[in-house]
C-alpha cells in the first residue's frame, strides 16, 4: 500500500477527503492527517510518505513555504496542492515544487481520482528506475569483486566513486541473512559511504569507504532487527589497492561460510588485518583422540566433543578442518564396534554436514552405538592376531601366514576373528593401516607414496583408493586440511 498524508487546517475538509473516495481500492492508505503544517513537517522527517495532499492556504504557514519544506525533506514524494483561491501565484508555487496537480475547492471526485492515478503512475515509473539503477550497481559490485581483470575493475571503481588514495578506508562488509532484507536495502541506499552492494543467496556483500567513526555509525544505526544484536556483521580487513579486492572478497566468503558452519547467531566480528587466523594449532592425531576417548562415557564424550568444536571455532578453524576432525573421531569410535554397516553413510554425512550440530549428532549416534555393543572381550587367539597386526602392519601380512604362525587352521581363525571383531582380518588390517597413515600425514614430511609403503602398501594407487573409501578424503586433501587455516 502506498502511504498518503493529508494536511489542511480545516478539520471537516480532512474528514471529507478521507470519505470522498475508496482509497484502499487504489492501493492507498491514509497514514496521517495534520491540521498544523509544522507538525506535518516533523512527521515527514521521521516517516516515509508517497503522496502528500496539502492545502495552500493555512494560517500557521503559507502553502508555498510548506510544500517547499516538505519537498526538501522527501524529494521523491508526490505532491498534490489544494486551494480555494484562484490566485495563480499559489498554483505556480505548488507546481514549481513538482506538485502533480492543482485541485480547486470544492474537490471534484473524478478529478481527484485522475490526479491520484497519475501520481501512482509516476511513483511506479520512479520505482522501476530506482530498481534498474540499483540492479546495475549490484551487478557492477559483484563483477568488481569476482573478476581478476584489472582494467574492468578500474572502470567499475571509477563508476562507483571508490578512491583508495584518501584518508578513508575501503572495506568489505558481510551481513548474514538480514531479516527483512528490504529494510537493509533501503538503509544501504541512503548511506553515502556505501559504494555498492549485492546479495549472495541470503547474505549481503557491501563495499564501504569511510572513516572508523563512519563505520561505527553505519553499524550502530542499522535497522534494529538487522543490527549486530540480531545478525552478524563481518567487517573485512582494509583494502589498500585494487589488487587486494579479490583476495579480501575470498577471505570474507570463507568467513561467512565458517560463521554459518559454527552456528554464530549474532555479534560483531572484526576480521584481522591480513588473515582470519588468530591461533596456530594442528589437528589432533588419531593416537591423541584415541587416548582422549579411552574409558570415557557418553556424557563425557558429549562434553569433550563440544569443547573440541568450541576450541576450533575460537581458533578460526575452517569447516574442512572440523569435518576432518570428525572423521578422526569416527575412525576411533568405529574401531570399538563389532558391527558397523553404516560407516560409509556416516562418512558421507560428515562430509556434507551443514553445521557443527550435524557433525556432533552423527558422532554422538556412533558413540551410543559403541556403548550399546559394550566392551569387547577377545579370545586369546584373536588378541594375538590383533597384536600381530598392530606390531607388524608394514609387512605383507595375510590370514594364512598368521594362522600358520599360530599353528591354527586359517578358515577357522578367520571365522573366529570376524565373529569377535566384527570385521574380517583383511578389513581390520586395512583399517589399522589407514589409522596409522592418518597420523603420518599429519606428523611427517613423507610423500604419499612413501606413506603408502610405510603402512604396508607397495601400490600407492590402491592406498589412495582405500584411504578415500575409509575417510571420504584423498590423502593429499587430508594433509592440506591438517593445519588450522582459513
Automatic annotation (TrEMBL):
Alphabetized UniProt keyword annotations: DNA-binding, Phosphoprotein, Transcription, Transcription regulation, Transferase
Broad EC category: transferase
Keyword Endoplasmic reticulum (UniProt): no
Pfam family, one: Response_reg
Record GO terms (molecular function): DNA-binding transcription factor activity; sequence-specific DNA binding; transferase activity
EC number, UniProt record: 2.7.3.-
Entries under CDD domains matching the protein: REC_YesN-like
Start and end residues of each Response regulatory domain: 3-120
InterPro entries: CheY-like_superfamily, Homeodomain-like_sf, HTH_AraC, HTH_AraC-typ_CS, Sig_transdc_resp-reg_receiver, Tscrpt_reg_AraC-type_HTH
4-aspartylphosphate carried by residues: 55
Protein transport recorded as keyword: no
Signal peptide: none
Record-level GO BP terms: phosphorelay signal transduction system
Record domain HTH araC/xylS-type: where: 383-481
UniProt name for this protein: Two-component system response regulator
The encoding gene: yesN
